[in-house]
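Reviewers of the previous submission asked for a worked example of the structure-prediction workflow described in the proposal, so we include one complete record here. The input consisted solely of the amino acid sequence. No template or homolog information was supplied to the procedure at any stage.
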Amino acid sequence: MLRAIATLCIGCVFVPAWKRSLLQVERNITEEGAYIFNVSLGKARCKIAVPADISLDELAYGILDAFDFDNDHLYEFIYKNEYGVEERIAHPYADSDHKYCTDDCPVGYLPLYKGMTFIFHFDFGDDWEFKIQVEAMPSAETNYSELTVVEKRGTPPEQYPNWEEDYEDDD
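From that input alone, the workflow returned the following structure tokens.
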């Protein structure tokens, strides 16, 4: 019984003190300017200027267009929040119980910082994972009004490399 009382006292005394000692990280929501992202898939790379106020849905379409992919599958963005916990924001039609979906979440809502990397996961069957790295935060020098592919390097992989073989097998 003494052990149970000691546990209760420890819980009453130390847990509230521990809760008060947690630092609250304030999320900076950026609504103006543009980020510069380096997006890579295999050996192909694109540098993309992305206005902070566009949705993640629009970013997804921009990435797919830059890599010559069809937009015919579901997707999600995977990143680590301010506390290092992995979070996902999914396509509106994805079977997801997440708080946000890509069409109502602006890019500037993410807790981005220079050098940060996160993933654009496209086509849950083929599992295309585009790596996105934040090269520059919004500033006067990165003021783009729409998503712009600034630079491309390398040849992107084919989205459906075995499509003709698969099609012939169905005949």
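The domain at 34-155 is CATH 3.10.290.30 (Structural Genomics Hypothetical 15.5 Kd Protein In mrcA-pckA Intergenic Region; Chain A). We consider this example representative of the routine output the project will generate in years two and three.
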